[in-house]
């Protein structure tokens, strides 16, 4: 079954569209302007005051992907019972938890704001998005560091292929976390069952855990096996554009992926987009995916967390001009 990408939305410090993914892009986390995001153009003037930053980012990216604004009716062709939401995140509520802990220590429970307390749940960004768009098929949050965004895409693909939904918003969102060196931002992909000649496509993927050796290094054979499943179907002579997302700790995984392609006789073209160093947390891999979707031909994005979780998604980029909406 074909899964078409019919809409995209992305925003972060220094990033407002796909064109920003190939330039110098976002600043270093230590240099980022904490007031970079103005909700009004995306969300209107009311209704978002007590939402967490990560929730605001997610609503804004989803509105861009669906071509709507907060307060508008449902997107065209909307069937609430067949529309799902899934979100990847890792730091979306870290700052709020720290603030609530500080309030309790310094002021007691009287210092807590009832309007903010619902944001305590890591599920709140995705739940708020599902409420906003009247999505009733499902609302799911995945919390793996770095790979959570791609895990959300893989979950969405599985749901569409099993007939659990006809349309899914696969997303990722993060709040800034200075201690982890992570910038805030969000990305959203609107996925539909069936072919769309104007859209790019998601063609496959995998999610698994790659063990470390007894000495703490990566088991090279396990890495090759993990990505061989993704590399093998690419039997075309066409060059596969390849984007990797991870920290310096996971660089050996990058090397193993390219070796796996070489073993299959498939030529690859390594490509790095803004955020390939995982500075946007789970949003980083979706930036890599969006970059690949906006160029023609086959592509593969692989994201790896330092603990060994690996996720990969293969795509066919749009032939002309990217997806139908962005």
Would you mind describing this structure in some detail?
Strand 7 (240-245), helix 7 and strand 8 (268-270) form a beta-alpha-beta unit. The chain is globular, with a radius of gyration of 19 Å. Helix 2 packs parallel to helix 4 and helix 6 (220-231) packs across helix 7. 28% of the residues lie in helices and 22% in strands. The longest helix has 14 residues, at 53-66. The protein has a ten-stranded mixed beta sheet with strand order 3-2-4-5-1-6-10-9-7-8, sandwiched between helices. It is built from eight helices and ten strands.
Set out the fold topology.
Elements: E1 3-11, H1 40-43, H2 53-66, E2 83-88, H3 94-107, H4 124-133, E3 138-142, H5 148-161, E4 167-174, E5 185-193, E6 200-209, H6 220-231, E7 240-245, H7 251-263, E8 268-270, H8 283-293, E9 297-304, E10 309-317
Parallel strand pairs: 2-3, 2-4, 7-8, 7-9
Antiparallel strand pairs: 1-5, 1-6, 4-5, 6-10, 9-10
């Amino acid at each position: 079954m074909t899964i078409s990408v019919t809409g995209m939305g992305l925003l972060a410090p220094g990033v407002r569209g796909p064109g920003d993914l190939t330039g110098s892009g976002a600043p270093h986390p230590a240099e980022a302007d904490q007031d970079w995001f103005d909700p009004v153009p995306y969300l209107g003037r009311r209704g978002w005051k007590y939402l967490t930053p990560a929730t605001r980012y997610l609503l804004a990216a989803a509105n861009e992907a669906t071509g709507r604004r907060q307060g508008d009716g449902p997107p065209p062709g909307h069937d609430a019972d067949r529309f799902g939401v899934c979100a990847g995140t890792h730091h979306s509520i870290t700052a709020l938890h720290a603030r609530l802990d500080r309030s309790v220590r310094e002021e007691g429970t009287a210092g807590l704001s009832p309007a903010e307390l619902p944001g305590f749940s890591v599920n709140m960004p995705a739940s708020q998005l599902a409420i906003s768009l009247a999505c009733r098929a499902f609302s799911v949050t995945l919390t793996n560091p770095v790979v959570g965004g791609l895990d959300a895409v893989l979950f969405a693909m599985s749901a569409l292929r099993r007939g659990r939904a006809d349309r899914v918003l696969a997303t990722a969102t993060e709040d800034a976390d200075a201690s982890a060196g992570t910038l805030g931002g969000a990305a959203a992909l609107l996925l539909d069952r069936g072919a769309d000649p104007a859209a790019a496509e998601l063609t496959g993927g995998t999610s698994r855990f790659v063990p470390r050796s007894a000495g703490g290094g990566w088991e090279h054979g396990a890495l090759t096996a993990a990505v061989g499943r993704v590399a093998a179907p690419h039997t075309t002579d066409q060059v596969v554009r390849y984007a990797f997302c991870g920290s310096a700790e996971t660089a050996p995984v990058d090397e193993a992926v390219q070796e796996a392609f070489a073993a299959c006789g498939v030529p690859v073209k390594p490509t790095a987009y803004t955020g390939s160093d995982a500075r946007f947390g789970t949003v980083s891999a979706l930036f890599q995916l969006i970059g690949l979707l906006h160029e023609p031909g086959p592509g593969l994005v692989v994201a790896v967390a330092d603990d060994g979780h690996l996720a990969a998604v293969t795509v066919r980029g749009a032939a002309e001009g990217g997806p139908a909406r962005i």
